[in-house]
Design a protein that fits this description.
There is one protein chain. This protein starts with 7 loop residues before the first strand and ends with a helix. 15% of the residues lie in helices and 40% in strands. The chain is globular. The protein contains four helices and twelve strands. With 202 residues, the chain is mainly beta.
Length: 202
């Protein structure tokens, strides 16, 4: 379980294909604190630490994860938003994030607004999935590349988010531009409510 409060943008230092698996090695400041089998979110995808090096660690993404997320787009040198799993004795500064990416979205516009930035994302809408809570609502929560954000101006297939300078500088949002694919996870609370409403209406 995560909160969507990214700790830093780790750098990809190596990518290794092994059949349908992709081993991703990253460098970050807390690599030395990690343990084998520990869960870390990468652009919002929960992956397990399988190997450690000097200032680096390695995780493995299976083909289903690569198909559902943007991790298959990674190149050496790219920045990845990383967050260790949430400690249950602390504050929940973001929102409840599972680390199970629902699908990808594409950035269609980035607009600077007096020091902050407004990003527009579009995703493939499915009416059946929307009935099950896979949608965004105004002022609701959404996770974009692992970052907990507040939704603005949602439609059936798009939404906007406002990014402050701190988030812009300390995550990989500064690399996102029109055409960039991002990972999105819809709010789990909305999914549960939609499920309960569906059961109650039967």
């Amino acid at each position: 379980m995560f909160s969507g409060i990214v700790e830093e943008a780790a750098q990809v230092v190596a990518l290794e294909r092994e059949q349908e698996n992709l081993h991703i090695t990253l460098a970050c400041s807390f690599a030395g604190e990690l343990k084998i089998d520990q869960s870390v979110a990468h652009n919002g995808v929960c992956l397990t630490v399988v190997r450690k090096g000097e200032g680096t660690y390695t995780v493995t993404a299976i083909q289903e994860t690569l198909d559902r997320s943007n991790l298959g787009d990674l190149r050496v040198g790219d920045k990845v938003n990383v967050e260790r799993s949430m400690m249950m004795n602390g504050r929940l500064d973001g929102h409840i994030v599972q680390g199970h990416v629902d699908q990808t979205a594409t950035c269609t516009d980035v607009e600077e607004e007096d020091g902050s930035w407004r990003y527009t994302f579009e995703y493939q809408a499915d009416p059946e999935m929307a009935r099950r809570g896979y949608l965004t609502v105004d002022k609701g929560s959404v996770t974009v590349n692992g970052v907990s954000l507040t939704v603005c101006n949602p439609t059936d297939h798009s939404f906007q988010v406002a990014i402050i300078p701190y988030t812009y500088e300390h995550t990989n949002f500064h690399q996102i531009q029109a055409g960039t694919r991002v990972n999105i996870e819809f709010d789990i609370i909305g999914k549960y409510i939609s499920r309960l409403m569906g059961v109650a209406s039967r």
